[in-house]
Amino acid sequence: MKPIRRILLSLLFLSLSYSGVLAQEASSYFLHTIEKGQSLYSISSMYEVSQADIIKLNPGCEEKIVAGQALRIPQNKTTQSQEKFHTIQPGETLYKLTTTYKTSAKAICEANPGLSAENFRVGQVILIPTTGETVTAVTPKTEVNNAVTPLNTGKSKCKDMHKVKRKETIFSVSREYGITEEELIAANPELLDGMKKGRFLCIPYPTQRIMTPKEIDKNTTPPSDSELFRESKQVPKNIGTIKAAIILPFTQDRRMTEYYEGFLIALDSLKRSGVSVDLYVYDSGSENASIAPILAKEEMKRMNIIFGPLYQQHIKPLSTFAKKNDIRLIVPFSSKDSEVFNNASIYQINTPQSYLYSEVYEHFMRQFSNANVVVLTSTHIDKEKEEFINGLKQELSRKGIAVKTVSEGASQDVLKSALRSDKENIFIPTSGSNVTLIKILPQLTLLVRDNPTANIHLFGYPEWQTYTRDHLNSFFELDTYFYSSFYTNNLLPSAINFTNSYYKWYSKEMANTYPKYGMLGFDTGYFFLKGLSRYGTELEKNLSRMNLTPIQTGFKFQRVNNWGGFVNKKVFFVRFNKNFELVKLDFE
User: Fold this and answer.
1) How sure is the predictor about 156, in pLDDT bands with cuts at 50, 70 and 90?
2) How much is the pTM?
């Protein structure tokens, strides 16, 4: 019997060891549910872990990820702040998280600006802050005596000392330490003159009083999510005179001068409507120049908003500065930087590629529900367009839409054999270059003329708008579409008025670029400065109410996660139809 007993004990030991390993592994990762537009790169950026570590926990995700799929993300052990990510579980409340992690509801809300009572739900990932300070979590009241009796038996009346931070209130501090406002004021009479940042407050010991059983039940009920979010909400403030800065390499890139010129026209329009703005302008110099001297200027800390920079190397230091000083940072140009995933103050105007493509795919399916897609492969390799085509093929395959592939130099017979009489035939080249257009337009034009009953379209890319003058007739004949986040019809009154104003101000025309930088400067300046004048510190909660019509730039902002900033997800299609009409298709 002894050998059998030893075997059973060994198996039990192995089982317990394996369970321990599984538990240890489970605590080392959390679950992230993929949202539309997210890529492996963006997910790794927002959690500051490597793609290789994500792949290790999720074999096969390097090949394909799908919205709605759950990924295991390793907790990053290397960050100095020791912040922790947490996936909300069934039955969890904000109050429960404050007790689990021994932090305050206010601290959690401040670390997750995108979190609210409405979207606090199972599966959401939030950032749990650990500031290094002694923080008392919110606790239910347990008052038990009508006669007030101090709990403190020592000589000091202060249980703790608290250094007042920016935007804190008497209510928020008293709730953080589980005392009443009256108790806090009694211990700190100077609060009658108001809260002042940097002042140290005496946190008194709480008091007790006897209550009836009904009162105890009532007062020991944990606060609801709605109550905690409401209590943690910062007091809205209006901004009388907006302090704005522009940091761009004016001497290095003349496009930046055009952006600034358009910005000044917006500023003039705003001032005429009563908006007060103090504008500070700085030249960031060359790509390798440091912007530290600019950020060291005393006035920079007082900015409400900063526009810039251009160069990738300048985004990180500017983002760090903006985050530290609670300043909104508008990044008008770069679409590839990862700072937006971990800085709630950033607005990225130029849509990151994965978010842009996901929007285009959705609009494509909506516009062409009965499509026969023909991909025209180019001899010129364009990696970005290759990624776009591969993603589109995946989406089309999921919807059961046929895809064919032919060479851009294919004969008329080959092109004709790819047509379907019962479907819309959409030709999409794998390159957006003008060289490719020059190659394919004559062939496709001949195909349309030889097959007048066939429903044929050409579909392409944002940069085509810079070639419109060269190929306008062909675009109309081929019933051409292209997608873009930046577009203006030069025949619209707003575009005509701006173009005339620009020429009147500067005695020159804007450069024929995509986008037009003068219009981009006007649109971004007008949108954000108008928003701050209307809503002050509540701008982020009112973005959907900004019913402005930009000249060129579409705006549709969405937070990338609960603790990060905003990306612009606005995309529309531009169509040149056979009736020689230019139509801008907005899918909102």
Assistant:
1) low
2) 0.79
